[in-house]
Amino acid sequence: MKIIGIIQLLSITFVHFALTLANVFLGDNIYYAVNCGGLAHTDLNGVHYQADPLRVGIASDFGSRLTIMRVDPRDAILYQTERYHTEDFTYTVPLPKDDGEYTLVLKFCEVYFQSSQQKVFDVIFNDEIVIADLDIFKEAGGIGVAYDRLLTFRGPLDNPKINAFYIYRGPKTDIPFLRDILFDEEIEEEEEEDRFDEEANVKLRTEINRFEDEPVVEDPYAEQDTSHMFIPFLIAFACFFPVLFCLCKL
Which terms are listed as keywords in the entry (predicted)? Predict the structure, then answer.
């Protein structure tokens, strides 16, 4: 089965994004934006996504049960909702009136499959494959991980889907990157280290309390009668003078 989706616009630049933590305001240059399968939303970069106008296919919020990595929680909704279909479906976008460079940003997140090779499709623009065999789970690094690419699609494995997209008037260098996935892992490592430290402190406090609560062990020699230990010394001292007297007589 061949499934093709085409988005019409004047000029599109394709790019893969990686890492940023700073918010860049893009709102003034957004030409068109849709939160696929979801309601209207304005993200931290000022991009206003309209509610999904499409009625073809299935709108799903299955991903709302997941915590989405690589994106601020306030914008997770863009990756938690999606539109998918078993047949062809198309978002038709009117051509921009102004000439210039435009960047199409499409957002993906695998929210259902838990391994690669379950949802694979080609990226197509104007009937040409620009990305072959896109596997969201593999490229993103797992389930619930935000992944941005610029694309239209078709697919032989399962049904293609899309979470959100927008068209920005300007170069791709203006687009803020996604957070690096290690950002979340480092937080988890720090939390794990803090947990181990706290467990060690609790164990140490427990040991201290245990020692403080235990009864004091009595010294077995404290009450022992040591007076008999001086008797040999007294006898030796008494014998010393007679021996000394006899030696002097010689």
Answer: Carbohydrate metabolism, Endoplasmic reticulum, Glycoprotein, Membrane, Signal, Transmembrane, Transmembrane helix
Q: What are phi and psi of 208, to 5 degrees?
A: -65, -45
Rounding to the nearest 10 degrees, give the CA dihedral for residues 218, 219, 223, 227: 180
Q: Which of 3-7, 87-91, 122-126, 214-218 has the highest mean pLDDT?
A: 87-91
Q: How far apart are CA 119 and CA 137, in angstroms?
A: 8
Domain of residue 131, CATH code:
2.60.120.430
For residues 134 and 177, give the distance between their C-alpha atoms in angstroms, rounded to a whole number: 20
Tell how strand 41-42 and strand 30-35 pair up: unpaired
| Residue 202 included in any domain | no
Phi, psi (5° rounding) for residue 27? -55, -35
Confidence tier at 4 by pLDDT (50, 70, 90): very low
**Amino acid (one-letter) located at 180:** D
- The pair phi, psi for residue 61, each rounded to 5°, is -115, 30
d(CA 198, CA 183) in angstroms, rounded, equals 23
| Per-residue tokens: 9 | 């616009």
Q: Which domain holds residue 53?
A: 27-185
- d(C-alpha 135, C-alpha 137), whole Å: 6
Report which residue type is found at 225.
Answer: D
Number of separate domains in the chain: 1
